[in-house]
Each structure stands twice: as structure tokens, then as C-alpha cells.
Amino acid sequence: MPTSSRARKTKRTYARTEASFPRFAEPIPNITVTIGRDALLACVVDNLKGYKVAWVRVDTQTILSIHHNVITQNPRISLTYNDHRSWYLHIREVEENDRGWYMCQVNTDPMRSRKGYLQVVVPPAIVESMTSNDMVVREGTNVTLNCKAKGFPEPYVMWRREDGDEMAIGGENVNVVDGEILHITKVSRLHMAAYLCVASNGVPPSISKRVQLRVQFPPMLSIPNQLEGAYVGQDVVLECHTEAYPASINYWTTERGDMIISGKLNLNIRVTNSPGENRSRLMKLIPQLDSYWG
What we know:
Elements lengths: L2 H17 L3 E2 L6 E4 L4 E8 L6 E5 L4 E5 L2 E2 L6 E6 L3 E6 L8 E7 L5 E15 L8 E4 L4 E4 L2 E4 L3 E6 L5 E3 L2 E3 L2 E2 L2 E4 L8 E8 L6 E16 L14 E9 L22 E7 L2 E7 L5 H5 L1
Parallel strand pairs: 2-10, 11-20
Antiparallel strand pairs: 1-3, 3-8, 4-5, 4-9, 5-6, 7-8, 9-10, 10-13, 12-18, 14-17, 14-19, 15-16, 19-20, 20-21, 21-23, 22-23
């Protein structure tokens, strides 16, 4: 018999033999599941006949199931099948250690198999033990805020001010600082604010931690009008502004150094507060002040 005829006959025989064996109808798709959710891996086999299907964890070589029976002792793993063709491996409430390759095997000789990858993603979380808490520092010192986040994929971390204002960092005004560390050189009262460390990795939800930075600085005093004039008997207001942290204790004195007490001689002292600033007003000065000032 010519060589070409033998080759054609061998090819036809191989084709008939191959057609009699089971074959995978489709690849096992790789799937991505968020931690805590359920995962489903599907294996579709045509022409299975009397052969059996098994699921195997590739990295540990652990047999999970053989045909209709679950072998593993893992209570989160179960098996379903349909029409002796579709075989489904269920993993309930997936954990990070479930990440890896899974193989669907048919016990032919030689063995036939397909693999699919289970990716387990984890939303970001702040590592409190490695992240800064609220801070009080003196003006002019250097400050470092740290923020550590975990998750999979590895989270992207950034710092920004809660109020949306720009930050004066390294001689530049920026809205965002990338990375786990926010370093402020020679901190000033202008840096006093709430800062947000924001961590994200594409797996919702993103997470943030609020860190309040308070800057201690000595009082600064300003007087809007250093000279006030009034007619005898006319009401007048003397006003001064002070800025300090912690808040300063403000009071008024006469030229002799005597403290002016609110309510005495029809005088009223009113103090209003805003963040880092006090405003003190001495109100309703009347003729008796002549004797008060001396």
C-alpha cells in the first residue's frame, strides 16, 4: 500500500477514535469574585459516555470532587451537574486562600483536562495600627501623617484636605498628595485642618480616614480701628481681634492696668469665636468713662 494511502487511513482511524472520546465543549472561563461572595466554575464536556469528571485544586493538587461526589472536607464547596454534560463547582463565601487555578479532569487515557483561574479581590481597608490619629503640634515643626491600607489589588493611597482647599507642600500648592505619607515641613497655622487619607483599588467601596491636624501658635492681636471718636453720651464700640491656638483668654484694661469688668459702669464685653480667632467687643461707653480712664 502506498505511503499516502496508509497516512490517509491512519488519519481517518485517528479521527474516528478521537470522536469516540469525551471532549470539552468550551474553555473554563477565568472569573473574578469579591471576597465574601460566591464563585461558580463551569466545565462542559460532550460525549462523556461512561467516563467521569473530577475537579482538582491545581496548586495544592487537592481533589475536590469525583463525578457526583464531593471529596473535599471544605464545607463551602459543593457540586451540581446537568444532563451529564455540565459540571459546576460552587465555592460559597470565597476567601483569599481560594485564589488560584482549578482543573476539570476527565479520566481518559491519557487524562484530558481544562483549567480556569479564580481571582479573589478584596476592597481596601485602613490599617489603624499603622495610620496616624488626630495630632496637635507646634507651629514651625515638621509633621508626618502616615496612612496604611490593605486589599487586593494593592490599594492606591492619597491625601487631601477635607475642605477641598489646596495644601502648601514643598513650596507648591497642591490638591492631592499621592502615597501613604504626607510630610509637611515647618507647619504653620495655615495647615490646621482635617485631612483625609483615601484608599482605593477598583473594588468598591473606597475607604477614607479623617485625621485632624491642630497647630499651636501664640496669640496675634489686631485692632481694626485704633482711634475711635464719640460725642459725650453716645454709644461706642471698641473692637480687637485675636488669633491663637489654643484659644486665648482676652480681657480689657484701662491705661492704669485695671481690668474692665463686664456690666460695671454700663460696660458690656462680648466675645465671639471662630476657628482659631476670638473677637472681643467693649460696648456702650457712656460719660462715666471719664472717671474710669482717670
